[in-house]
Amino acid sequence: MSLEHYNAFEKNEANYVPLSPVSFVKRASDVYPTKTSIVYGNRSYTWAQTYQRSVCLASALQNAGIGEGDTVSVLAFNTPEMVEAHYGVPMSGAVLNTINTRLDIDTIGYIFEFGETRALLTDTALAPVVREALKLSGRDDILIIDIEDTQAEGGERLGDQTYEAFIATGDVDFDWQLPHDEWNAIALNFTSGSTGRPKGVVYHHRGAYLMASATVMMWPLPLHPTYMYTVPMFHCNGWCHAWA
After folding, report:
1. Per-residue pLDDT tens digits for 24-71
2. Which residues are CB-contacts of 206 (< 8 A; sequence separation ≥ 6)?
3. Distance of alpha carbon 44 from alpha carbon 25, whole angstroms
4. Which residues contact 192 (CB under 8 A, 6 or more apart)?
5. pLDDT of the residue at 130
6. CB half-sphere exposure, 84, CA atoms < 13 A
């Protein structure tokens, strides 16, 4: 058979799957459903639970009219919600924008505007900064979902729903799909703006998949490692360790 004949075969579900790190959490749920995925203070989840919560987040976002190409920003610390956003946001087709919590108000407002944020998951402890940043951005149309950290004290709600109430509106059986093109954006990150306005950096699903896979191989990670997440997940998506 000639090369011309081989090149005539087209992509289909039997011979081609777009590369995306979102597929990792589905596999973890299927193969190791009862293995612990996250421990945070007095909260603990299995991989089945993390997958289900991520799916519910994706479903709730789509129910809210957010989908492919839309930006979902997150201003939060290293909490379970941040991990779930790394899966649930791209499951909905949207682009994950994790924002450095140490940035000044003006810079955060600029990111809201330039990144065209449609929804914002934000820790209530950051309410004073977020409120002023929203004013500076001139945006009053952003869906705000409040993350209430049970391990922290204080904080103020800015939105109409908490994160837990929001994902409760999602469907655990939501039929999410891998991206139709692995070059679709999965994440939008910004530089710190130390030399001017922050520059946006886009990851695609393929790149995030390969980076996460390379991390597993090059460290190398043993089976079922326990990893203490000290790197902020807003830094380059935690160096892709949330996916790895």
Report:
1. 999 999 999 999 999 999 999 999 999 999 999 999 999 999 999 999
2. 18, 19, 20, 182, 183
3. 16
4. 100, 103, 198
5. 97
6. 27
Q: Which residues contact 234 (CB under 8 A, 6 or more apart)?
A: 74, 76, 98, 99, 100, 101
Cα(236)–Cα(201) distance, integer angstroms: 9
Neighbours of 132 (CB within 10 A): 15
Confidence of residue 6 (pLDDT cuts 50, 70, 90): low
Whole-prediction pTM = 0.94
Task: Name the 3-class secondary structure at 213.
Answer: helix
Instruction: For each of the domains in the chain, give its residue range(s) and CATH number, in order of start.
Output: 29-239 (3.40.50.980)
CA–CA gap between residue 44 and residue 191 (Å, rounded): 32
Token pair of 93 as six digits: 């087709």
Sequential DSSP letters for 117-151: EEEEEEEGGGHHHHHHHHHHHT----EEEEE--TT
54: nearest Cα among 46, 127, 230? 46
pLDDT in tens, 71-126: 999 999 999 999 999 999 999 999 999 999 999 999 999 999 999 999 999 999 99
Query: Which sign, positive or negative, has the C-alpha torsion 187, 193, 198, 201?
Result: negative
Run of H or E residues at 40: strand 36-40
- Tokens, residue 119: 């929804």
Percent of the chain with pLDDT over 90: 84
Tell me if 105 sits within 8 A of 132, measured CB to CB. yes
